[in-house]
Specification:
The chain is mainly β and 138 residues long. The protein has one helix and eight strands.
Length: 138
């Protein structure tokens, strides 16, 4: 890309992207039509192959915890929720997203690989709860 090339466009703005889960109760992401990468991160171009014309995708609202930590010192928005878990979730079908789980009060309440689902909340961030339903076929 040179300085005179027009900037690539995205199907939605960063603000619309972030508000997707707060107002529309869905997880928005992008899928690359060139290499197939699915990402939960807003981007103007594919972070894998560099293609500019990414397609908007609605991501799965279910996935598995791949990393977490339990926070006992919260930000103001979560004063009444601490302790809670800050989690990284690998969504079914692609996309890795950070969120939080109010039901997790200690490290023994959660394990890597726990199935979770998106549970829209009035709180900021992406709230997940344990998914008691069946795991998808693999
Ligand atoms: Zn790509």
């Amino acid at each position: 890309m040179s300085a005179t090339d027009p900037l690539p466009s995205a199907p939605h703005t960063v603000q619309e992207f972030v508000h997707g889960y707060e107002e529309e109760h869905r997880l928005r992401g992008f899928r690359c039509p060139n290499c197939g990468l699915t990402t939960a991160t807003w981007a103007l171009a594919c972070p894998h192959c560099g293609k500019a014309d990414l397609e908007e995708a609605t991501l799965s609202d279910r996935g598995a915890v791949v990393a977490f930590t339990v926070l006992s010192v919260p930000g103001d928005e979560f004063l009444n929720d601490a302790p809670y878990a800050y989690v990284v979730v690998e969504l079914d079908g692609g996309g890795r997203i950070t969120g939080w789980m109010p039901s997790v009060k200690s490290e023994s309440d959660l394990t890597i690989g726990t199935r979770v689902r998106f549970s829209p909340s009035y709180k900021p961030g992406v709230q997940f709860v344990k998914d008691e339903g069946d795991a998808p076929a693999r």
